[in-house]
């Protein structure tokens, strides 16, 4: 989500992915409740990336942490993955090769421990758009160091997922691929070898432009000694695909926008996930969303799941709000998505 992100400083994502069934055999309750074929279905839980124009910012004023009771409610609905947007600068201030800010990091580890303690996956999502202090990251070694430092703290938690960065955009495609590879290398060098790594592409990691915009350039060639890369793409269903309108283009726009990316995943034998999607609480969008999720289930050899955008305590009456008990999507869309969780 880009425009909303600028306005509100936060966003939510849901991602799901299909993996070998043996892989999540230990996932307990949330797995057993699944109705869909997806391995992962979830919600973005915003808050800790808010106020990103004010770094480091103050807890409770500029940013907040997602609410644990929301995790309880949503896992009760069957969701098993939560994307936790954070700011790179709040985790490691001043320079990417620096040291962790223990105060902010404690908030992150507390939430990650809570989510994974419930048997769900926690995605650590630096919501930085490929920037550090607003400058495009070109220092791949520094980026690798940031990830190596962070991943070392989670190396023994197999339910943690590392999302290299949220929505790279207006960057060189080759640089984006290099940054993804640097993150993978740093994470594995930290001894975190069991976890999934979600990679994202340029052009806001949009699925609809993954092939046509050249986002795919260099991405199929990423290598991981643990072979646990998942391609995270985002897809909204409004006219400009930005996720800022309540209206959806048509009842089939989702499957249409995923067609080329689906073919790319199949041709390259890769696994994908829709890390962010949403639509307004209206009949057309609900048709478009369920049609897209049905299409993804039909192609669950390459689509592992989806994540809704977004939950979090500070969204108010946001058009896509998934925060219980009264979020717009929580009350108006979620009941229609139950078969796809
Ligand atoms: C989900 O998180 C990503 C990265 O933090 C952000 O860009 C996006 O806007 C979020 N989506 C929602 C719906 O909040
Ligand atoms: C560390 O994080 C806390 C909480 O966000 C913040 O108040 C403090 O200023 C940060 N310190 C540095 C050096 O960024």
Automatic annotation (TrEMBL):
Gene3D superfamilies: Glycosidases. The keyword Oxidoreductase does not apply. It catalyses: Endohydrolysis of (1->4)-beta-D-glucosidic linkages in cellulose, lichenin and cereal beta-D-glucans. It comes from the Eukaryota. Residues 43-310 form the Glycoside hydrolase family domain. It is an enzyme of class 3 (hydrolase). Keywords: Glycosidase, Hydrolase, Signal. Pfam families: Cellulase (PF00150). Its EC number is 3.2.1.4. Residues 1-18 form the signal peptide. Belongs to the glycosyl hydrolase 5 (cellulase A) family. This is cellulase.
